[in-house]
Each structure stands twice: as C-alpha cells, then as structure tokens.
Design a protein that fits this description.
Layout lengths: L1 H15 L14 H7 L13 E12 L4 E8 L2 E8 L15 E10 L5 E12 L15 H4 L1 H7 L1 H23 L3 E2 L5 E2 L11 E4 L4 E5 L4 H9 L4 E9 L11 E10 L3 H18 L5 E2 L2 E2 L8 E3 H9 L12 H13 L8 H12 L8 E4 L21 E6 L2 E8 L4 H13 L10 H7 L6 E7 H8 L20
Parallel strand pairs: 3-5, 6-10, 14-15
Antiparallel strand pairs: 1-2, 1-4, 2-3, 4-5, 7-9, 8-9, 10-11, 11-18, 12-13, 15-16, 16-17, 17-18
Amino acid sequence: MGEGRGAYKAQRLEALGTPSYPYNFTPTMQIPAFLHAYSSLEGEEAGQEEVAVAGMVVGVREAGRHLRFVDLEGQGARVQLKVDSRRCDGEAAVLRRGDRVGVHGVAVRTRAGELSLAASSLALLAPCLRPLPTHGFHASHKRLQRRYLDLMTSSEAREVLVTRSRIVRYIREFLHQRDFLEVETPVLAGSVGGATARPFTTHHHDMDAELHLRVAPELHLKQLVISGFDRVFEIGKQFRNEGVDASHNPEFTSCEFYLAWADYSELVSLTQALLAGLVTSLELRPTHRGQPLDFTAQFPAVEFLPALEAAVGARLAPPEELGSEGSRRQLAELCRREGLEGEGSAAKLLDRLAGRLVEPELVQPTLLTHHPTFMSPLAKPHRELPGIAERFELFVGGQELCNAYTELNDPEAQRAALALQASARDPEAMPPDEDYCLALEYGLPPTAGWGCGIDRLAAVMTNSTHIRDTLTFPLVARPKG
C-alpha cells in the first residue's frame, strides 16, 4: 500500500511539474453565499458580475474534448464548476480529488438546469499528493489516527463538529443573557479537587514542584463567588487519568456555572430551559437507538436510593449508615452478585451498582436525585432528609449529562466531608484542600453549582454513538514498537 501511495505522488508530480503553492487567493464569496445569491438564476442565462470562490475538488467529470465539470466543496456546500479549456485560463485536466483551487467566473445555469460557475480562470493552490480514501475508511480505526482525512472525506463527520460549535455558542449566549460572567481558571495547579477522579501529574522544574492538570474547575469558580462574583461560568478542558470508552475521554470539555443566592431546586428549571431551548433553537432531533428523546417535556425525577433498592431487590442501610463497614460488606456482596468488582469504598460500590442497574434504564431525560452525602462531599446536606445531599444528575440515554447541587458552604463541615472521603482510601477520591476550606471561612453565600460534559451533550444531540466523533482530534493509542 505504501508503494501505491508513493507511485500516486510521483505520477501527480510528473503531471504537475513543480507545484507553485501560491501565497494567497482572495475569494469574493463563500460557496454557500454563491449558491444563495444566484439561486433564482433561470434558464441558461449568466450572472452579470464575475466572482471568485475557493474550495476542495471532490469530483472531476469529462464532458467533451474541451469541457470538464468540477465539483468544488467548501464551508459545508458544493458547487459545480464549468471549465471550458478554450475560455479558461488554467487547466482542469490535471485536477484530482483533494486539490485546493481558486476560481474566477460567472454564475450560469447548465442545460441540465444546475447552477454552476463558468470558470474564466482556475488556479491550483495546493495539490493533494496522496490518494484520498474511499471504501471502508470511515468504518476503520485509521480514520481516528488520520482525523483530517476523515473530516476531508465525510460531510457527516464535519457536520457533527459544526453542530457541536453551535451547541457551545448557544450555551454561552444562554448564560450571558442571564448575566453570568465567563471566566478562566487555572488548568495547571499545585492541588487537585472538584471531582472524584485520578489526575494527570507533572513536574515543574524551575519551581521543583509537583503540579496537576485540573479534573474540574469547581473550587476556583466557587472562590470567585466568595470574592463577590455572583454568577460565573467556564467552558474549558478537564483532564482525568481514566479509561477511554464511548462516554469517556481523558481530555474532555465541560461547562460549569455557579449561581449565588440559589439552591439546587432553581437549577432544575434552568437545566430544563437550557436544554429545551437548545433543541428547539438549533432544530435538533436527538434519538437513542431510534427512539426520539424529548427535552421539551418536564423532566421526571427518580430518587437514587429507592431506585437502587428496587433494582437490587433488597433493603439497604439507612442513608446515614450507608458508609459503615456492615453496609459496605452488603454492597460488596450485591456487586459480586451482579458480576461487578466487590472491592472499594461504599461510595464506589454504590456507584457501580447504580451504573449497572439504575442508570441504563434512564433513557428519556430524567433527574436522578438525592444521593447519599458521602457520595457528594462538596454538596450541602438535605435540609429534611438525613444522610442525603441536595443534588441531582440528569441522565439521558443511560448516561450522565449534568451534575448539580446546593454547594456546601460550612468550612468545618467541608473539612469533615473531605477527611471522610480521604479515609476511604479511594485512589480517585478528592484529597483534603485546606486552601479551599480557608477560603470558605471568608463566606460562600448560599450557592448552587451545575456542570455538564460538552462532549457527551454533543454526542446525544448529534446521535453519535461515541464521544470521539464529537472531538476534533480524539486521543488514539499509537502502536508500540
């Protein structure tokens, strides 16, 4: 195969000579704008003004000794070029799929009625010296290793990224309209916190210090609320040293916002408004295994422990006793019964059971509410239910999209919650962060916090089965050796 690619390159260079690679070309119109501007052109009449467009060649067809039709693609649209060598300065015969060209000409209707650009000049701006993949490439793992080829040759792959961009823009505008301030917080720091996850760690030589890539921006964002910014949000990269599967990537994008003077109940209505507005405004049609997903209906709520007890067919310890050793042994046995690993903290075992038995059943947008407090060390205890946190997660298609809770703002209670989690000896547990607890002593007002994984959200909204399809360049393991 390598020899074939090399032969193709040699043949192209022989046909082209030495490519000139011009420094620039100035289109007067993008291809979508051209199609829109001349859509009303009738018969075989020609436009009055010469225009210039540029794009990638996706097809070349001979229509006679001097005439060729070239399909040119750019900005998500495609236009046909009519290139008559007797009237065009530039040769279409040497063009191949993947070539980048710039064209001057006038709009015309062909005899077949297709809106086209009759070329008066054609310039090869950058030749494609390798054959573009055809059959089977988009179903192979190689498309991820050469993602640029996947995007070059698949309009569906490009459309997913375009939709993702529109989703992010909508979320940003939604929050701006509600007076949230967009901020940036550190990606590299000396401490790690804000989520239960194993971090990536590196060494800063000049400071002779161990630093971590952030697993969540939560603690810094809440410190901004303490400092007087009542509404803040951040859309940015997080890094977690975890596995890669359909819903996880070690590098991912999240949106988190924090709203002072509020609790988690206000976030339910905000979440509903955000997602209902998103699908309506962008005219999205999300489905799960062929079943339409309804984001406009009121999200139903399912309580975590009652749902889990119904799924395992057993009574669990009361919420305030779930973290005991006796409860942990019961949970371990239930995990083994379901074919799951039976080692780990009570929080980890509960999470495994819910992930196997409860979460996959939450297909339509559903709020999973009222998790045990020891599973939620940064959340405020429920004001009426002992051992329960004021928290909800939004599940869609069996996977978590959003996580939200009333923020714990009592510094001593926060120290105790982090110490309890650390004592469980979970390698992914968030370590105690005294700097954050010290900040709480200056007063975090009643605050509600919300987070959403953008990659997962984009996958749901574009009907992608794997979040890697929503990433420009997903992490791909390279062959060893």
